[in-house]
Amino acid sequence: MEQDSLLVMEHIHKRFPGVVALNDVQFRLRAGEIHALLGENGAGKSTLIKVLTGVEHLDGGTVTMEGTPISVKSPLEAQRQGISTVYQEVNLCPHLSVAENIYAGREPIKFCKIDWRTINQKSKELLKQFDLDIDVTAKLDNYSVAVQQMIAIARAVDVQAKILILDEPTSSLSTAEVEKLFQIMSMLKDRGLGIVFVTHFLDQVYAVTDRITVLRNGEYVGTYNTAELPKVELIGKMIGKEYEALESTPPAAAQDSEAEEFLRLEHAGTGSISDVSFSLKRGEVSGFSGLLGSGRSEIARLLFGADRHTSGKVCIEGKECSLKDPLEAIRHGIAFCSENRKTEGIIGDLTIRENIIIALQAKRGLGRVIGYSEAQQIADRFIEELAIKTPSADQQIKNLSGGNQQKVLLARWLATDPDLLILDEPTRGIDIGAKAEIQKVVMRLAQEGMSCVFISSEMEEMLRCCSRMYVLRDKEIVDELTGEAINEHHIMQIIAGEGETVNEEV
Amino acid sequence: MKTKTPLKTRVKISNISLLIAGTMLVVMYLAGASVYDRFGQVSTVLNLFNDNAYLIVVAVGMTFVLLTGGIDISVASTLAFTGVFSAFLLEKGLPAVVVIPLVLVIGTLVGYAQGYAIHTFQIAPFLVTLAGQFLMRGMCAVISTVSIPINDPFFKAAALGKFSWKLSTGGTAKLYYYVFVALAVLLIAWYVLRFTRFGRAVYAVGSSEQSAQYMGLNVKRVKIGVYAINGFCAALGGVLFSFYTLAGYSLQNMGLELDAISSAVIGGTLLTGGVGTVIGSMVGVLIQGIIQTIVTYQNLNTWWTKVTVAAILCFFILIQRVIAIRAERKKA
After folding, report:
1. CB-based contact (8 Å) between A183 and chain B?
2. Span B145-182, pLDDT tens digits
3. CA distance B287 to A381
4. Would you call B25 an interface residue with chain A, using a CB distance cutoff of 8 Å?
5. pTM value?
6. CA of B67: which chain A residue's CA is closest?
7. How far does chain A reach from its first CA to its final CA, in angstroms?
8. Are B28 and B21 in contact (CB under 8 A)?
9. Which one of A100, A132, A142 has the shortest CB-CB distance to B7?
10. Res. A279: pLDDT tops 90
11. How far is CA A326 from CA A329, A332, A363, A411, in A?
12. Which CATH fold would you assign to the domain B7-331?
């Protein structure tokens, strides 16, 4: 055993119904290092962290901290052992004040009562270290998710822990905030803390970490010094052979401009968007590119009838139609994979089979119930086609990893045999392997004549998939690009508002 | 670094609701005073406390439970049981100094057991306390189906002991000693919720149970604790109520749990948990009391009290929703 290990986890096993989440995994953390824990979704990172912080109990294996074996049965115990955690989703109390969220459970007591002045004062000072100058007596839910995330980090840092675990802390932070976080991580590292850093952003891994431990499919792949592991090799270790698949996905082919039009929006508006016009052609993947809040998702909801257009008109195959609700959209052959998988997508307690056929059933109407054998057949077909990793179609969808859940949602809509598929952030938070598979399926279907709307924050993915790009800024379509004009630099310029004078084909 | 500044007009649901409730209480009192002669006297105010002391205690206990996002519909039965059982034991000749602590312990244990079942087996609080309600009400009838009078000297002294003084306008103003018990409970509860770790953990659990757990708070202790506190308060309310009536009767105070819940809601407590104060709950009790007084003065059927409370309750629930929705919109 290494002498300088602060934390040693060995032979860790954890099973969930139908899934082996961790199989003989090991993890060693030194004092004074930032250690990246990497792997695809479903690789077991989150489970390993939950085991370490006492949220889940391990089925086998040992955890040793500073040479003494420990058994962590609850988050409270983990904190007492000196393990402090920032979870992926903000885990603070919205109704409590900012300061209270930082001090909950360890409030200073003076004269038999909580010393609010000290709490507020110290919280203020603490947040100053994060360049946050906010009213700490205000309720937490007055602040944006990014600020809340910083507060959660501040709390975790202030707990005087020996080990700090950061599970995807940067997903809601801006670049400047991430910078600040890295500074603080370095400072804590110098103080001798062991920091576990989980992230999807490989650039961040190379920016701050000392070592990397890679998990794949619940198994331990290896631990490496960050400086000695090139990125390409790292990706190879994370996804195995699947990386080649991603590389070999052909870029979007230039489309025949004579392609038949499927849907057209003319001066349509609703709520926050007032006047958008565009047309979607069969066999084409159209990207909607823009910053968060630029109107991308609003357009998707409009196309699916989730928000009804209040002005302008929508024509499908040349005929005007109202698209008054999602059911009508489904019957017109429109499908919508929404942005928020957990709350607007999956129905956690239902099986994969039930989750897949639900849209098809809605399209057919309740008069024609899909029988068990037909449903099973449909489910099996998609499980095979999309390579959904599950023991059977009877598995509850909530037990699947994010990537596999997303594939099930894709299957749900493909089962309706759509003419137009709207994908809003279909690959957010899922692993590269599943990403590549989803991209491939979309492009294959487009070649077969389906029309597709693709929305993603990842420019690389948009560039790979889309043959036509609408660029959005402030709830308006500011440009339409095809062919050579679709390149990252150009799109960034347009989004930033510098591209209007550039002469391009429209 | 750019950070969102907090909303300038920060909206705190609890504060605003409490402010509205407080204003409403004062307005109702002044309105009553301007219409009826004797209404304006200080005795009206004191009688509000005399008549509702037990309900204040019960509402305070209920506030703890509601703050965690739970609910307890067994309190009225516990209260009745306390009354009947006390009367029964006193009749058998046990001294009050034994009886009162005993019934308080029983109430606390009943609450504890319910909290234990709710937390450990993850059963809906409504169901567990519904069972508790039937059980305690049933136990009352097992002991006695008829009203048992209380003749114990201590109880009599407690029932009748009061400050009283002649008013210059004629008549006497009275404030019974047992009101101070209720006020003490209120004060202690306020202190616990505001200045102790347990109290703050109650808010944290109600705000988000998962977060509270992840923050390392002892969720189990909080969840069981609030039901135990509520059971204690229900029993203490029962003792106060038997001072008030000097009898124990199995069918006493049917539906009182809902009065306690509505008082808390009117006082700004959210049933989803995390927001509310015991002071608010007391104001809620007083508002219901003042409505009752006005209805009496007006010589109306007492059911008009319920009708009015219903209207006020609707009003407050709507207000809370509107405030919450506006706050969300502003954030977005």
Report:
1. no
2. 999 999 999 999 988 888 888 877 777 888 999 999 99
3. 64
4. no
5. 0.75
6. A95
7. 64
8. no
9. A142
10. no
11. 5, 10, 10, 18
12. ABC transporter involved in vitamin B12 uptake, BtuC (1.10.3470)
